[in-house]
Design goal:
Blueprint: H1 8-22, E1 29-35, E2 41-47, E3 50-52, E4 55-61, H2 65-72, E5 75-82, E6 87-97, H3 100-109, H4 112-120, H5 130-143, E7 156-170, E8 178-185, E9 188-194
Antiparallel strand pairs: 1-2, 1-5, 3-4, 4-7, 5-6, 6-7, 7-8, 8-9
Helix pairs in contact: 4-5
This protein binds flavin mononucleotide (FMN).
């Protein structure tokens, strides 16, 4: 059992709630870093859609470049930076696909055009021009005209990042910042502080 008093998700929630009140845009935006099968790191922003003691959730195209990286290497990092708070959170973890039913539920909650877009976009593949994408969107609108009944593409869904290390970084005067790390060791969270 995790020690709830030490579990960093509680501190994450405190900071995330504060960011949600203060950040102008996308307090749930996070940088996701993955490693490709030729050992090159890649980073991009994604949106956090859920979090709990099991991990952090986002949705994407499983066949995108990030999806390919994740297929060959399950080690990933997340980075949240909230300018309004002068705070950063870094997460290290192991990623896994969400259960299809959870992905279905989230997919069905999305706007009709976002669901159509998921069908139309072969994310990270080359487009000849914008028109090619627009034509595909029209094609899938005709294919799935019932807004209440668009199936989830098999190549689109959620990922869960099972975290084992989280660092909370907080700006302090004169760059004497506070860095607090939580690391899971033998199923217990250890907490320590790093020099800024
Ligand atoms: C603020 C922001 C949020 C984003 N959220 C997502 C997201 O939740 N899922 C996603 O697939 N792409 C998202 N993107 C686009 C990604 O950054 C990226 O362009 C895309 O996923 C393709 O990445 P890849 O080629 O590395 O797979 C977002 C971009 C920005 C700027």
């Amino acid at each position: 059992m995790l020690d709830r008093n030490l579990n960093p998700i509680i501190q994450f929630k405190d900071w995330f709630d504060l960011a949600s009140k203060n950040e102008i845009n996308d307090p749930n935006a996070m940088c996701l870093s993955t490693i490709s099968n030729d050992n090159k790191p890649h980073s991009r922003m994604v949106l956090l859609k859920d979090f709990n003691e099991k991990g952090f959730v986002f949705y994407t195209n499983y066949e995108s470049n990030k999806g390919k990286d994740i297929y060959s290497n399950k080690n990933v990092c997340l980075n949240f930076h909230w300018k309004s708070l002068l705070r950063q959170i870094r997460v290290e973890g192991i990623i896994e696909k969400l259960h299809p039913e959870v992905s279905d539920k989230y997919f069905n909650s999305r706007h009709y055009l976002s669901r159509i877009g998921a069908w139309a976009s072969n994310q990270s593949t080359l487009l000849e021009n914008r028109e090619e994408l627009e034509n595909k969107i029209e094609y899938f609108k005709k294919k799935y005209p019932d807004k209440e009944n668009v199936p989830r593409p098999p190549y689109w869904g959620g990922f869960l990042i099972n975290y084992h290390k989280i660092e909370f970084w907080e700006d302090k005067p004169h760059r004497i910042h506070q860095r607090t790390v939580y690391e899971l060791k033998d199923n217990n969270w250890e907490q320590y502080t790093l020099s800024p």
